[in-house]
Amino acid sequence: MYAAFVLFWSTLVAGDIVQDLFDAHNVARKHYGIPEFACLDSQLNTLSQGHADYEVSLGALNHDGFDARCLGVSNRVLCGENTLFDYVDDGSAMTESWMASPPHRLNILNANYTHAGFGVKQSSTTGKWFATALFASANPHKEASCVQSAAEAVVGTSIATTKHHHHHHHHKTHPPSTLQRALRTTE
Questions:
Q1: Which PANTHER family match (predicted)?
Q2: In angstroms, rounded to a whole number, what is the distance separating the alpha carbons of residues 187 and 183?
């Protein structure tokens, strides 16, 4: 019973973190004059969650399978990814960590990315939260699967607060020409 409660509680907290990540990313984009992400995309959430689960199973950050995740985003043209682990279960603090790193900040502030998805999972052995953010541009010929649009989001976070904590992160951006060639050969 206790294990079921812990799993249930962890799932509830993870859902809140995903929402906080979406909101905090949009606050950051707005702060820098970049249009907010048009939508929190369920397909990107699923792909991000799968990768966060995988990282927890390894106990390490990586971008294994990034090309496959990008190709799996059937209604997108460009994509990028940030990963992170932290001991804090706070989407705003995670976003601040990524924003403090120039390569991660570039992914977050890339105006070509119009959709975002997030996955988070806490390691039961270390207590670390692993987070994956997947960003993509819209393909005008296909419809996205928005969980929530930016207009529906209630943004109550601020990037002005600085929290000091231990974190590690990685980023990867798929070069547009490579991904576009790959998409053309798989469609």
A1: SCP DOMAIN-CONTAINING PROTEIN (PTHR31157:SF1)
A2: 6
**Residues 166, 64 contacting (CB under 8 angstroms):** no
pLDDT tens-digit series, residues 122-163: 999 999 999 999 999 876 656 667 876 544 443 332 222 222
If you count them, how many residues does the chain have?
187
Q: Identify which of 171, 160, 177 has the alpha carbon closest to the alpha carbon of residue 107.
A: 171
Do the Cβ atoms of 180 and 76 come closer than 8 Å? no
CATH number among 3.40.220.10, 3.30.70.20, 1.10.260.40, 3.40.33.10, domain 2-186:
3.40.33.10
**DSSP structure class, residue 36:** P
pLDDT for 39 equals 87
Q: Please indicate, yes or no, whether the overall pTM of this predicted structure exceeds 0.85.
A: no
Are 37 and 137 spatial neighbours (Cβ–Cβ below 8 Å)? no
In angstroms, the CA 37 to CA 28 distance is 11
